[in-house]
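Hypothesis: this fold can be encoded by more than one sequence.
Test: take the structure tokens below, design a sequence, compare later.
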């Protein structure tokens, strides 16, 4: 294990670049996780470790990787680069995975959550956490606006990003996939045709679809949906946070 104390070290520069730039993550096919929980969950789900960074003096058990890929950082340097200063003792660079829609296994009992063009990484992470906790079968992100390995997505998902199958593709490709597998599409939208979410049945295989908070669902999704549902809100509030809405409907559908 090599000891590092300077932020000018090439390994530290690369780490910071992967943390801050989506372009770098896509180019290198690498991303960053912080702490034992996310790291252990990722490894359990088959993600491969590229590089490990430990806080000096910590009692962490070293995960087996090539010795030249493990570094001990001074406390000052570790806190400088960590997004959770003082609360974690390990940072890891991992290899990304592909997220092709055709890799998702489906059957007649499947429940898939679809998010069209979500923009806020925090919302995406929270939704992935809820989807994993509520035992949904997969999450598909249509027309993604941010990369799946954004640090805030990983942090807010609490390991959920590693615990549930996830695919990304265009809305057109996602709709084709759902129709080819005979999914019943329930679209959540503030539409004149929308029904109270508790007054409809959710037939499986089920695709529950949400749009972005600011623009809602594209009209093509509303045309393809077998039903449109809404969550009523009381004036002066006109809508709910995306992750809250998704959580309400995911658990409601699970109770049916």
């Amino acid at each position: 294990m090599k000891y590092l104390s300077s932020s000018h070290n090439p390994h530290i520069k690369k780490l910071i670049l992967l943390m801050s730039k989506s372009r770098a993550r896509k180019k290198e096919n690498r991303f960053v996780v912080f702490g034992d929980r996310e790291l252990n969950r990722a490894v359990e789900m088959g993600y491969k470790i590229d590089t490990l960074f430990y806080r000096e003096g910590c009692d962490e058990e070293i995960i087996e990787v090539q010795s030249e890929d493990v570094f001990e950082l001074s406390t000052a340097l570790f806190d400088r680069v960590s997004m959770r200063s003082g609360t974690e003792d390990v940072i890891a660079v991992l290899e990304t995975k592909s997220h092709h829609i055709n890799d998702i296994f489906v059957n007649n009992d499947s429940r898939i959550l679809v998010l069209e063009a979500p923009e806020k990484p925090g919302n995406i992470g929270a939704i992935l956490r809820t989807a994993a906790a509520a035992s949904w079968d997969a999450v598909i992100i249509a027309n993604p606006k941010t990369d799946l390995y954004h640090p805030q997505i990983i942090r807010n998902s609490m390991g959920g990003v590693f615990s549930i199958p996830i695919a990304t593709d265009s809305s057109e490709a996602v709709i084709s996939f759902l129709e080819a597998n005979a999914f019943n599409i329930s679209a959540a939208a503030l539409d004149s045709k929308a029904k109270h979410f508790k007054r409809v049945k959710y037939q499986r295989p089920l695709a529950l679809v949400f749009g972005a908070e600011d623009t809602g669902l594209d009209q093509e999704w509303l045309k393809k949906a077998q039903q449109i549902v809404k969550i009523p809100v009381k004036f002066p509030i006109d809508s709910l946070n995306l992750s809250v809405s998704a959580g309400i409907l995911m658990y409601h559908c699970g109770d049916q």
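The chain has two domains: 2-95, 101-255. The first helix runs from residue 10 to 20.
Hypothesis status: open.
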